[in-house]
Amino acid sequence: MTTEHPGASPSFAALTADDPAEIGGYRLHARLGSGGMGHVYLAYTPGGRPVALKTVRPELAGDPEFRHRFAQEVANARRIHGLYTAQVIDAGADAVTPWLATAYVPAPSLHEVLRRHGPLPVGTVLLLMAGIAEALQSIHGAGVVHRDLKPANVLVATDGPRVIDFGIARAADAVALTSAGLRIGTPAFMAPEQALGQPATSATDVFALGALAVYAAGGAPPFGDCPESVALYRAVHEQPDLGRVPTELHALLGQCLAKDPAERPTTGAVIEAVRRHPAVGPQVRFADGWLPTAVRTELSRHGDLPAPPAPPHAQPTVTATPVPLPRAEAPGPAAPPAPARRAGRPVRWIVATAVAALLLGGGAVYYFDYPPEDPAPPAEEGQSQDASGGGFRPGYAGVQLTSPDAGYEFDLRNGKVVPESSADWYLSRSATEFAVPDDSDAFIAPGGSLTPDDCLKGIDRSPVTSLKFSELEDQHPFCVRSANGRDVVIVRLVEAVPDGGAVTVSLSRYGKDS
User: Fold this and answer.
1) At 144, is the secondary structure helix, strand, or coil?
2) pLDDT tens-digit series, residues 20-33
3) Is 148 noted as a catalytic residue in this protein?
4) What is the reported pTM?
5) Residue 273: how many CB atoms within 10 A of its CB?
6) Dihedral angle at the C-alpha atoms of 384, 390, 394, 400, nearest 10 degrees?
7) How far from 467 is each of 45, 442, 470, CA to CA, in Å?
8) What is the pLDDT of residues 191-228, one digit of tens each?
9) Are 98 and 56 in contact (CB under 8 A)?
10) Residues 6+ apart with CB under 8 A from 455
11) Which residue in 19, 94, 148, 165 is the catalytic one?
12) Is 389 left (phi over 0), alpha (psi -120 to 50) or beta?
């Protein structure tokens, strides 16, 4: 199967007359590629954020079995959240033409990098293996086997690789695909058990990782450039050819390419082997020098995207009139910048009055009005309460999500990652802190546990206006209460990559009966 990828390319193919202008609310701007499944477009959210949007070919869209399988694969992909995977943003599995949108990664595929620059240094190959192994941990942790890990499905970004395309990924216990014309995997990187038609497991992806590393280090697949049938036969019956691979990689790659899946290392063992390798050292980091200079130079061109198409109608904006301060009431120093607020929404401090004043530098006070919150319904006498307290009922629980950068926020109502400005009840983030809607309240737990009842009491007594990562790193959960008081989400910061990198959280939602 030809795989499309959401990586950047130095040039973008123009849309044709047959291409739609918009899909699922995303404005299409250019073609990124085409393949056996359909087309991949560079598209933009209403707020101007780029996404990679994949559509399914019409003849496949008309196949009920294919649509059922596509819906399953989308559900699987939504469960995968990792720093080294391309996050699934949105999907239209029930649309006339099914589609899937993922975070746009401004990077070429490993296949393109190797085609243009040839084999990579030992240190680069080892770091690639570590990053891909961590991506596989996220994939396998969601109960999914990738089944088609190859250079075209790995993007090479400045801060590490991204594993993409879960279009043929299935749950680990799912049956094999049977539709004619669809191949499970790519022969040059297939494990013996795949070639024999046996069930794929996490060890199957480790074999593909070893084969990919052989290609990256030596410039050729482990069983040579040969017809597919020959590659499958050699994968089952012959030993891999490591003649072009530097000797310091032979031991690790040989283990990954073991015929018996039980003899292959786990993804965690692969990462540990990379950490122990003298070419990398104890700290596995994607610093500035992890890629050769020529590759880094090429990557610098991939961040330049064509300007997004203009929206059909300009959006109204909200302005505020400054009221000069009396000279005797000079304001204090300006507050540090916080994550960007929604355009058109008033800035709100968590206070009891209906009008709040925000002091800014420059000798002015800006007054903003906001509507009062809907009061939470009082608990009826005798109403049963669960362990969450306060009459709240559990919704989703322990959902782990990753925002790749500040252009993506957490949709608190639905428990997913969405492009910035997409959710009405959200948790956005900057490089150093979180922000909540102006009509929501927040509270940080003093200890390591937090219930919805604790949240309500904390908001009444000690509400917060600052949610800095540095205040949450010691396993202090925090909560966000909706404007009407009927919903609470408890948040734990799992990881925040420095300098504006990916942020991972765990979310649990609780709601009151209507």
Assistant:
1) strand
2) 999 999 999 988 87
3) yes
4) 0.58
5) 19
6) -160
7) 27, 8, 9
8) 999 999 888 999 999 999 999 999 999 999 999 988 88
9) yes
10) 443, 479, 481, 488, 490
11) 148
12) left
